[in-house]
From TrEMBL:
Organism of provenance: Catellatospora bangladeshensis
GO MF, one example: oxidoreductase activity
Keywords associated with the record: Oxidoreductase
Name the record gives this protein: 3-ketoacyl-ACP reductase
InterPro entries: NAD(P)-bd_dom_sf (IPR036291), Sc_DH/Rdtase_CS (IPR020904), SDR_fam (IPR002347), SDR_subfam_2 (IPR030981)
Similarity-based family: Belongs to the short-chain dehydrogenases/reductases (SDR) family.
CDD domains: SDR_c
Electron transport keyword on record: no
């Protein structure tokens, strides 16, 4: 994707963000760019025939890149998180362009359901499990070796977006709950595996956040709009993606050095 400030040479800190075209991923790209990071913004940039709602487009990714590039080096990259080779190529681009990789943030996600688990089309279930869980594992497999290639003392950060659905049984969203619970368990194990390496692994667990996934959740539940979910949270409102992105940016930075294997609720109290 040719748009955006590609920068030159080695940046102080380099991040790769999946699901970057909208929602929490887009907000994270913008937040990191504002903080001086060089960012490779990764998204599918196309439609998934298995899912009944619109995915983000390449034009939406380009718009995020253009906004973020006002603050520093940002580049868009089209890749499917289900494709390990494509993610490995994205990591290689970040290393070649900016000299290394310091943070990888798995924010790509989809949702499907709206009927009991045994009635969900298998292709939809596969899409949820493959994007929301396998996509996180794929990013770790591609990105962690790059972060370990940084010289010691290193401070790499692997981050993932889980969900309050990791701990709450949401009816008619069984595959989504399973995938997000898997993300939480994976991050805990990964934090243990990375102990002493200088690379940490953490996740955020958002509540009802004003994103296209929440809009699709409302449709699946037959609700007129996503705002109906606000009453479930003690804060009494939906979260803004930027609020979740702010916590991800903290976890990506040096002040989170004592944290690994943590799943941080950013949920307006939903899990209480």
């Amino acid at each position: 994707m040719p748009r955006g400030n590609t920068g030159g040479g080695m940046s102080a800190r380099v991040a790769l963000v999946t699901g970057a075209a909208r929602g929490i991923g887009a907000a994270t790209v913008l937040k990191l760019a504002e903080q001086g990071w060089s960012v490779l913004a990764v998204d599918l940039g196309g439609q998934d025939p298995a899912l009944p709602y619109a995915m983000a487009t390449a034009d939406e990714l380009a718009a995020v890149v253009d906004r973020a590039a006002a603050h520093g080096p940002v580049r868009g990259h089209l890749a499917d998180v289900r494709d390990l080779a494509a993610l490995t190529a994205a990591v290689a681009e970040a290393e070649q362009r900016w000299g290394g990789l310091d943070a990888a943030i798995a924010a790509a996600g989809v949702i499907a359901g709206g009927v009991p688990m045994w009635e969900v089309p298998v292709a939809q279930e596969d899409a949820v499990l493959d994007v929301d869980l396998r996509g996180v594992l794929n990013l770790a497999r591609a990105a962690i070796p790059a972060m370990l290639r940084r010289p010691e003392p290193r401070s790499g950060r692997f981050l993932a977006v889980a969900s309050a659905a990791a701990t709450r049984g949401l009816p008619m969203l069984a595959a989504y709950c399973a995938a997000k619970a898997g993300v939480a368990g994976f991050v805990r194990a990964l934090g243990s595996e990375l102990g002493g390496s200088g690379v940490t692994a953490n996740a955020v667990s958002p509540g009802s956040t004003d994103t296209p996934i929440l809009a699709e959740s409302a449709r699946l539940y037959g609700l007129p709009d996503a705002e109906r979910f606000a009453a479930q949270q003690p804060l009494g409102r939906l979260l803004d993606p930027a609020e979740v992105a702010a916590v991800l940016a903290f976890l990506a930075g040096p002040d989170s050095s004592a944290m690994t294997g943590a799943v941080v609720p950013v949920d307006g109290g939903l899990a209480l």
